[in-house]
Amino acid sequence: MKQNLSKALSSAVLQLLRPLMRILLRNGVPYGAFADLAKRVYVRVAMEEFGISERKQSVSRVSVITGLSRKEVSRVNNLPDTEDAGTIERYNRAARVVSGWVRDGRFADRDGKPADLSLEGKGTTFNELVKLFSGDVPVRAVLDELQRVGVVKRLTDGRIRLLTHAYIPSREEVDKLNILGTDVKDLICTIDHNLISDAGKSFLQRKVSYDNLPEDVLPELRKLATKRGQSLLEELDLWLSQRDRDINPSSKGTGRKRAGIGIYYFEDDTQEEGEKT
């Protein structure tokens, strides 16, 4: 049984690493740099999550758990941090502003659609929108970011118009690579939870796919997935915002949790029988 589990895990890791290696090679990241990153995470997880209760985790124990030498554990542990928290926070704040503009009736026109907003002044303004949904971030910084990625535009009268109901980072690789880290991490954490959870306590993890579709139907499928997926996300966003204490301080309850739903579309060429990957 243990051998079967090891084989299944190895197969799963090979599958998830293949697209990751494609991204790394396309961006000029050599194996040595990836190996250091992998070692760092091995060491960090062993340090933080695999200790013995009421005992400080030691370099020697981490060495045993990870298979790295004590010298290598110490070296990797002292590597500079490379996590870009600033870019992730910018993404989260911009997304909250767009979401609030779409669902909060105070920022809607007579037809219930997101209204064109004055930057400041009387009535509902972009300034008020940002302060309500993005905290103390400068309004100009949020506006510049949304203009940069093509989510809003300035009209000739100075008002600001929302062009899309979703904040999608620009084509700049830095923004999109940060989503690679956050979104894939969430999916793998869900799978990890489901692997160790008792029946009835698993998280939602579903997909639907077919492997003999004509290429002609894919454009229609992409449009259908985008339309239905966006609609579901907006519905869930409204429900969550009414219960999030940053946006709705009157929301009752204890503790502080992070939760959400992710939707993604995929397609590729079907592998012919007998063909190797």
Give a concise summary.
This protein has helices at residues 2-26, 31-49, 59-66, 70-77, 85-103, 126-134, 139-148, 173-196, 218-241, and strands at residues 152-154, 160-162.
Architecture overview:
The chain is an all-alpha fold and 277 residues long. Among the domains are: 1-82; 85-162, Arc Repressor Mutant, subunit A. It is 53% helix and 2% strand. The chain has nine helices and two strands. The protein has helices at 2-26, 31-49, 59-66, 70-77, 85-103, 126-134, 139-148, 173-196, 218-241, and strands at 152-154, 160-162. A two-stranded antiparallel ribbon has the order 1-2. α2 crosses α3. It is globular. The mean pLDDT is 86.
Topology (elements, then pairings):
Blueprint: H1 2-26, H2 31-49, H3 59-66, H4 70-77, H5 85-103, H6 126-134, H7 139-148, E1 152-154, E2 160-162, H8 173-196, H9 218-241
Antiparallel strand pairs: 1-2
| SS strand fraction | under 5%
Largest sheet: 2 strands, antiparallel
Helix and strand composition category:
mainly alpha
Overall 3D form? globular
Please give the share of residues in helix. Answer: 40-55%
> What distance separates the N and C termini?
26 Å
**What quaternary form is this?**
single chain
- Residue-averaged pLDDT: 86
| Tally of helical runs | 9
Please write the string of helix (H) and strand (E) elements.
HHHHHHHEEHH
Radius of gyration, in Å, reads: 23 Å
Number of strands: 2
Describe the strand arrangement of the main beta sheet, using strand numbers.
1-2
Task: Give the low-confidence spans.
Answer: none
